[in-house]
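In this section we walk through a basic example: taking a raw amino acid sequence and producing a predicted 3D structure, encoded as discrete structure tokens. The instruction is simple. Fold the sequence below.
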Amino acid sequence: MIATLSGSLFHKDPGSAIIDVQGVGYEVLLSTRTYDFLPAVGENTFLYIYTNVREDAITLYGFFSQEEKKMFLLLNTVSGVGPKLGLGILSGIDPAELCNAISLKDMARLTSLSGVGKKTAQRLCMELGEKVGGFAPAPAEAKETGTGSPTQSEGFAMQDAASALVNLGYPQETAWQALRAVQQEDAEKAASLQVDELIRAALRTLA
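The resulting token sequence is shown next.
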């Protein structure tokens, strides 16, 4: 069972990456959030891996943090939520924000996620409500990634900014990619921005 991969990034796109490990290329499916954390092609990278073994295929799913991997596995215990939808959900929200939304039964936030309708949101709250209470990102790992998971207040600003961008006509995935690009430019500054400032900064990356 492959649990991690470390090697040279051979190729990447928002849905997958190929990691060259001593001459063997491993194709890994990933969320757009993990994609945002990948280095440039040719540089070394590290991902946590979940190996899904089926009769007709062996599929690798990659994550930039253990928290994202754990949340992915939790999501896949929910009836009607498979790996594809799990990655779609994690592309639009970080694990801590997702746990908060589930704990608070925030249906508006949950149904704003790609592929999540009212019934799926209800199942997430019902089946994971008691499981996400103690779920929180590790401070040491957040420091290691350089950007880490947003704080709760930062998360709400990011959510509001993403919603505003969607209302402007941008696809949700594009909106979150733009906001993550703003974070990568200067994570500390991004954390202090108000919603309107985040929107303007994201629009500049989309121009």
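Looking at the output, two observations stand out. The chain has three domains: 4-63, 66-128, 146-206. The chain has eleven helices and five strands. In the next section we compare this with other chains.
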